[in-house]
Structures are given as structure tokens and as C-alpha cells.
Design a protein that fits this description.
The protein has 101 residues and is of the alpha+beta class. It has helices at 12-30, 95-100, and strands at residues 38-45, 60-66, 69-79, 82-85. Strand 3 (69-79) and strand 4 form a beta hairpin.
């Protein structure tokens, strides 16, 4: 199933696929990961208002597991069309880059 990143989703299932595609695009194109680096992306609907608008990707959270760190999950959310990583402490934590740089 192919979802265009600029085409708004209309159903819960479409939104889940949209969020997966958006996070994967972010990781590969902006964070420069290879697709082989990503073991899995799981999306869950969150919050009390998630049932109100199943087409709003901001109500969903993606959990990414990287191939070289299977014991860690990294939380990603979409806000105003941008993908952001939540607070993370593993080796793929984006906040670590600020400390190391």
C-alpha cells in the first residue's frame, strides 16, 4: 500500500500507514538512516481525543526499533507536519547529538 506524504488520510487505517510513511521518510531522508537500520515501526493511537478525528496524525505515536538496538523503542510524534523524537536515552536518541556536538 502506498501513501503520499502530502495526501491527507481519511480513516484510522490510512492515518496509521501515513504516520509510518512519514516517520520512515524522516528517518531515511532527514536523519540519513538506511532502511536496513529500521527494524520496525509500530503506530498506536493515543490520548482521549484520538477517537474524535481518526485522520489527525498528531493523535498517533510511532515507536521505532532500530536493527542494532532491538531492546529499545524510540517514540516519534508529528506536530504541525514535522516529525519529532520524544525523550530517548539509547544510542539513537537525537538529544545525544547536542551533548556530543
Amino acid at each position: 500500500m502506498m501513501y503520499w506524504l502530502n495526501t491527507p488520510a481519511k480513516t484510522d487505517d490510512e492515518t496509521i500507514h501515513f504516520v509510518i510513511a512519514k516517520v520512515e521518510h524522516y528517518l531515511i531522508n532527514e536523519r540519513e538512516y538506511d532502511s536496513k537500520d529500521i527494524h520496525s515501526i509500530e503506530v498506536v493511537k493515543g490520548g482521549k481525543t484520538a477517537h474524535e478525528d481518526p485522520s489527525n496524525p498528531e493523535l498517533y505515536t510511532a515507536y521505532v526499533v532500530f536493527a542494532d538496538e532491538l531492546e529499545e523503542q524510540y517514540k516519534y510524534e508529528i506536530d504541525n507536519g514535522q516529525v519529532y523524537q520524544g525523550v530517548s536515552f539509547g544510542k539513537h536518541a537525537e538529544s545525544n547529538e547536542d551533548e556530543q556536538g
